[in-house]
Structures
1.
Amino acid sequence: MKPVIHAALALVVFGCNATTNEIVLTGSKTDAGGTGSGADATVADDKGTGSTTGADTAVDTGPVTPKVDKVCDNPKATKPTGKGVAFDGLTYTPDTEKSKGITYDFKCTMCPGGKPNIDGKYKYFTSDDKGKPHLDQPDPATVKETLEFNGNAFVNIIEGDDHGTPSKVRAEGFYFCHEPGAMSQMKFGDYFDVIMVYTKVEASPAGAFGITQGAVDPCLLAMDATHGPAGVFLECNFLWEPNGGQQGQNEYCRIGGTMYNQQCPDPFATK
């Protein structure tokens, strides 16, 4: 899907992502079920009626569960945190208008178990027309969103108005930090330093906020340049534009923390 922009708030939510594309995960994978038999191309643990000794016709939508991280042989790779989802490779072919036929082969991660100091629960916030941040905005009565990290695993929850329809979505997934040069087919590819993978999406109605299970997004994920661990910044190229364009820039504050001399509230807390 194309990234969703809230008409009233002009916000691009974290979960907006591209159309479901061809994904080959080189690690083991939980299979949603199957009817085929034989050697599974994704080394699936088939919970369906087929065996794993022939061609599996199931759609693999479960979480990636390799046994250990494959850490890039690079001096800038961080030490394993022991948290989140282990990663040992992903091959991805976007199905967006300008990226068809381009395949990305990610063999390792630079941040096994996630980036340091980002663990925690965050709230999406907006700024006014003059650029002044307001941590209590957007109005929770209109839309509210949290983003939580545990190692490289994330949970994104959004509730509110989606183009005039009351909607809810809970998305789970993980990210990995690709090795420099792994996105050479994209201009400024190294700028988008993480790849977000959506492994489970529960939405009402289906497709709410444009979030789709199995989507893969290249993003810049960083702590706030001024406030450090009090907030994170997320900028994504949901459409995998080869020119390196981005379609969303979001800021999140750590719930319970302080940024811009303001307290960061939990938008889902009952008053």
2.
Amino acid sequence: MRQPEFCFEVMNRLDLDLTNQLENPKYMLVGGIMSHALSHEATVIDLEQKRIIAPMDASPTIVRKEDGSHRDADVVLPYVATKEQATIARRTIEKSTKYKLTASVFGFETKKASTDRHDRTQANIRQWTSRRSVDDQGRYYYDLYPLSMEVPAETYDTWNLQLPSGQLVKTISPLGILMAYKIRSISGIRHKDKEKIAALEDKVLSIPELKQQLQEGIFAPWQQFANDIATLGQSHYYRQESVIPGTSNSDLMLFFIKAHALKFAESHKLPVKLAHTHIGALALRPLNGDA
């Protein structure tokens, strides 16, 4: 019987290749590979060096056992990336990992102050997942129309995942990995992510310094944004300061309807199964903010 391959085994050149190929060498590995590594009981979180030290046992398999699909390497480019830059990053990731991992690349959007009704309508229809954006003053935001939250730039400081080989791969703070699952969807916390989030919380929030950062420190706005998504999606309640100026009652109602529709779809196997096919993934790329 063929032994399963692990993601860490094909990631040893990832940092070197991305650093060499990208005009702006900043990137952050996020998503399932990082959540799997971070939540493992033997993984060490080194606050002083901003390093996540993971053993091979903390690596997920390349091929998912449940459906036979290849795992994604989700990478954030923490700046407004062009399509060409995103394409270079995607091709580099797949070549570097010997085409064993499927690359998904997410950049930042330019924060728009437009009050144009057409733009708002388009955002209301298209946005089902949150967007990262940056304005012309260099301030960072999370957006999920009509919600918007400024977040401290320090929350995007570089951390490193240390592979069993000793090689490093750039990532984000453990709190960024945890909170991404709470703020990414208009439906709030997805059913399939509940166990993952619980495991991450057990690991990450057991460290007092990180718990403090989430409750009243630099990551508190991320937690507030998660609360805003949940309350508007579940009860139609919202904080006035959480929505962009000019938001109408119809905007708020559409958010509420979309949140419930997506939560219903996510609770049934067929829509979820279709979303995980290759064609489904391609179709959902624009809605997920993939660059």
3.
Amino acid sequence: MKKYISVFEVCSRVMFYKLLAIVVLMTVSQWAAGILSLKRTLAETASQSVSYEQYTLLGTGELEKWISLIFIVAAAIFVLLAMMNGSRSMQLNTLKRLRISEGAVTFLWGVYYVLGLLILYLVQGLNITLLLRYYEANQPYLVPNEQILTVELYTGNFFHFFMPLADTYIYTDAAILMVSLGLYTAYSSWLLRRGKKPAMVFAVFSTAYVVIKTSTNIGFGTLMLLVLIGVGAVLNVMYKLWRGDEDEA
């Protein structure tokens, strides 16, 4: 058991502070973009010199555009850094001393990357909630409405993916996508060390992007189809790790 924990420690030494930096920079960037976007929106409204009763939040469309872009960039950076992990001679020597198969190492590092993606997912959900609360508190003509945040979370594709509310099946979609992307990222690192091209990780990332950007529009059936694709991707990686196949996934 200790050698498996040591495998996690080897990965963590390289990736933990990188993940922490990504989370901090993502959060700071999203808040900066959100605050500046709201100020610009309110300034444009004030310039019209019109007071009116407001039943929806102003500026959330612009907010969603910016924070979704920032999240996608943050997730892509994490995946790319993770793919490059394991190339250091010090890491390779440590893993050799542990006498554990490279397939097992790849799987365990994939689990670590899944946890990293989960942290990004949870932090993003928290950022969305707090930013919408901030927007609600700074709307000049807003009529108090307990359902206003619920409406925003259901009408915004990006918001809804991270805060699905009653649509709990989206949590299943998110979990499958994170597992698929995490394992494929680890497998891609394995392929890169052998001079092969890990094209499939980009296909999985693109699928995740489509689901995130269209979660309220494409419906339950299509989302379940994408989930099945994700399950197939996971099973493909597991099979190749079990067989020790070095062909590209």
4.
Amino acid sequence: MAKRKSTKKKSIPNFQRKQPRPQVIPALLAQSHKTNIAHIFENPKIWEEQILNLANAHQTRMVQDLLKAIPFWNWLQQQPAPNNSFLTPWNKSIVRIVYGGLDPLSVSGSLAAGGRYNVGGAQQIHIDGLSDIQMQAALYASDTEACAKAEAGQFLGQAEIYELHANREILLWDVDKVISSYAWPGLQSLVDGEPFNKLWKLQKTPAISQILGMFLRSFGGDGILSKSVQYPTGFVVTIFLKDDNTSKQLFTVSRI
């Protein structure tokens, strides 16, 4: 009689069993052309999701800023001119810090990216309610070297410090007095918060402080005097300018 074949499976030693392949998570290597510093980003999928979240949040902020800007601009145009007593004579030199060999009297950066009190090309928008908003240049400086350093922050490259001397007396709008004379809710905090809330070249709609700066410019004066938010005892001086030529006509420069 033939023997029945056993149906019992032979056991396979652990070392002979097929092991599941470990999941390979790709990594992204990014290297700065400026500093030559390399960073390895593990799991780029997570970074991609975070970037998308940041982009969506930024888009939401732009819409929120736009919804604030339109009614403020429409309201401001109905207000009386600011009192001329808010213009402060300024006869002192001012200090400006630049990086990367930039001309200290150049306003090209403010024309392109905008600034706290001037609308740049980045913020020009052609929609109903803001069609009158125009790109205008400004030069930003401080009353002392210490304040200028605090306002400039830390950037890559060699910092160059300059003292700017106006060839005539300049008249600056005291922005705190101007703000206190207009009854727009929370205007002081909105204006004070702009430098921290904005990376100007990424700001695609006019900010409240920029609209206020354009409004004041339309009534004359040479610029705006505001308290520094980075250096409590200092002041920031914003000079209204047309282009680099008008800047060089108004100031002479000396390196500190």
